[in-house]
Request: fold
Amino acid sequence: MDRLSTLLTHFGVNAGTFHSGAFCGITAFDGSQTAGHMHLLQAGEVHLKLADERELHINQPTLIFFPRPYRHRLSAKEGSGAQLVCASVEFNGGAGNALATALPDYLVLKLEEIPTLASTLQWLFDEAFEGTCGREAVMDRLFELLVILLLRHILASRNQQPGMMAGLADTRLARSLNLMHAAPANAWSLAELSAAANMSRASFADHFKRIVGQSPGDYLVSWRISLAQKLLREGKPIALIAEEVGYESSSALARAFRRKTGVSPREWRGES
Reply:
């Protein structure tokens, strides 16, 4: 069972490298961008100030990941020896898509804490600092690979907040979530989902709500609406979207969409 591939089929990741090399001074990100960011400190020291007013002095090789737009500031003093590689990171479907919103606001991980990323990180640093031809295209792809590997690392972690990632990290719930992710148009019953998890309906419903933070039915609706938002961004007609995500008509989709977002699909498309 592949817990990530279906998600990434719907919400693939695109990266764009914008800095590689020595870093000195202050760079601020106001959170108004459409993308998140990844910063890799290869050597030296930087100071990171976050939107929640937390301030971190980072003096070891570290990965800093913001899966969504998030206000933060990086600074380094002259002589700090800071060597940074940075990229914008955006999931298909926009910052509000189901995968991006399932992740924490930020992750700050020492590179020694994520050994499964070591070879990819070394490859990226080699590209960043050796100046070979085609380096930016290679670095963009490596940043995208890093995000996927980081998602694997998150799924392997047992310290999860309630949500999609916690559900996918649970081997029983992952089977049911995979069914909903792969076939959102199906009218999944509690009996079918609990059978996939090899649990009784009552135990499954209780466990799902505790780990994911929603009932199975509410989660399916949320997943469908997130897919609908992605398809709206792509310009698909609402009638076709409704059929694709499991509603018998455009009006049925519109009612569910308004309950989840507070606006109609057409209003949302006009605002996004």
User: Anything to note?
Assistant: The radius of gyration is 20 Å. The chain has twelve helices and nine strands.
